[in-house]
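Consider the following assembly input.
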Amino acid sequence: MKVAVIQFPGSNCDLDVVHVLRNILNIPTDLVWHKFFQNKIYDAAILPGGFSYGDYLRSGAIASHSPAMEEVKKMAEDGKPVLGICNGFQILIEAGLLPGALLPNDCLKFVCKWVILKCETSRTAFTCLIPEGKILYMPVAHKEGRYFNLEEDLKSIWKEQQVVFRYVDENGNPTLEANPNGSIQNIASVCNKEGNVVGLMPHPERASEKILSPYKNSDGLLLFESMINYLKR
Amino acid sequence: MTQTFIVEVIIENKPAARDPEGETIHKDLILKGGYENVKSVRTGKYLKFLVEAEDEKHAEKIVFDLCNALRIYNPVVHTHKILVKGG
């Protein structure tokens, strides 16, 4: 099993993901420059957070045309797990691998805080070990994370079980106060129809060790453990 | 023979997607400044291309094609307008 963390110009959460995979989960992991990424060498790929190409035009818009993305599309078609975290999620959206759009936060500010998430589906490569309805704590750090989709497409992604996580309060309710960026229906994460490509705005790699969490948990690790479980099937 | 044209592209959110920047400019600047006859403000993105083409239609087509091929706007959430001006 070998995982690639794809580094774009402006990625800055790449080493955090590499640390979690290599040092906590003992998974052979390569940090791969976006021009050199090849699908056939790897079993899974993670697009980390950051500010690829300075967020010019729109977050993720320029990186979505990187040579790596043709390889990521092949990877997605092959059914291999692909995870986009924060800017990685924005890149997957802009590449058309995930549905919808990510707009500037409704508060117009960079939001950096811990949020509460509810798992909406266990059918994906990154949530297969997370029971539906489970509450997880993770931090967000972004300025363009307001998930948006048109009404008809929203109905479709619910029907196809493509909503993966939502921002909720401690009781699991998707309230206005629990929503850090104005995302429609409090959506924090979506997947493709097959469930092997997932994108989310929160940072699981920053919530994978108890020492880093104010809640003394490692909820983010569950996503990476799910990926390992999915690959071993 | 080719000429040079200025082609402008204006990208804005579809009406269904809120524009908090426009709303804030309207509420906290325009209305507070006493311009009550201004009923709304929408912000967007403006790109100016300098294009070599045979005529205006050709220049417009080049930019129309590149906007779609390179996803200069996100069709899920944006509308775009292309305006051609003489070079």
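The mean pLDDT of chain B is 95. Ask yourself how this observation constrains the way the partners meet.
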